[in-house]
Amino acid sequence: MVDIKPFKAIRYTEKAGDPADLITPPYDKIDHNQQKKYYAKSPYNYCRLILPMEENKYEKAKQRIQTWLSDGVLAKDDAPALFVYKQEFTLSGENRTRTGLIAAMRLYGYDENIVFPHEVTHGAPKADRLNMLQTVQKNLEPVFLIFSDTENQIIDLFAETTKTSPTIKIEDEHRITHTVWRVTDLEKIKSVQTAMRDKLLVITDGHHRYESAIAHRDAQRARQAWTENSAFNFHMSYMVPVQDEGLVILPTHRLLKKFTLTNDTMQQLKKFFTVTEIAATVESIEDFLENHRQKRAFCIYDGSIAYGVLLKDEEAVSQLVNNCNSKQVQLLDVVILRDVVFKSILKTGELKIDEDILYVGSIRSAFEKVNNGEAKLAFLVNCINPETVWQIAQKHERLPEKSTDFYPKPASGLMMMDISPEEKL
Known about the structure:
- The protein is an alpha+beta fold.
- The protein has 14 helices and 21 strands.
- The protein has 2 domains: 4-248 and 407-418, no CATH class; 252-382, Conserved hypothetical protein from pyrococcus furiosus pfu- 392566-001, domain 2 (2-Layer Sandwich).
């Protein structure tokens, strides 16, 4: 049973300045140059909390939160609330809207079959977020999850709520509009809690944060007296119906830094795939992927030549893929790339992020990195459908890391949630 609760959000006050100068993307989408840019925007920019540049970053974040609360730059709401959060954005020339619910959601182990992961996680990011969580005792960013709302119970609440005046409305640097409404009416809160009670949820973004929060919860329980309503039993969560037409996944392309195509590897590729040379342009790659969206297809670019690649032997490929996976997972482009092309044909072994493999969101960026020598090969892929992610996760199967890029990300800096030991929900 899904247990969600309203919470007393900690939010910026007018004293912090222009909200557009305060919000950021999630911490793992901020590189060093962006860090410097966000630092320059405002002395209160949220990057200074989620990804401080200073060496003692966890303590620095904790000190800043305490200082900003004392100075009135941040303030805790008097009353607990749920939040409706809408993002308006343009993608490929089309205006889109995605709306979700922000609430405190009780933490569930994956073995409870209530919350499901969909991607592989790594130890280092989990250790980093656990250190941050233990130090600041706050959920600084939400976990992003999807659920099914076939009867439109939650979607109808969104429609009703978004007709009223919002609490927050900000347009960010990417021209995405973020609008937030506070829901404090007890009857509405109860109806949402009832509607969410029997849902299943799949994590789309924030696996490391979620797993770190469970580790923190377990450590807190072992350390002190606690109740079911202790805030550290919950995590601030952003939940979106999988039926939402604005739920978009962008592709994440793979770049290998140390491997090249040889005559031998090309011959190996041709055993499983039809390989056709195509024009080495961004537009040609885009056209090939779009025209083969319903097939097992990807492209390769080596700095001078581009190839369109189509799977021709599903059975042979499925034998090279982890046999624990269902056929649906075995035949996903990103799984075929990892298990067949990388591990079996190129013999890459385990690939380390940044050292062996890079992930980029645009074909143009992939071309640039290969052309300037940052990588030797680019593998360009189509995106995965949200419904596919929803189905796969509930089969207890995980996709390779960086398989999905749900767009846009929830903005960081709209609110945080206190999970101090004494905080109750």
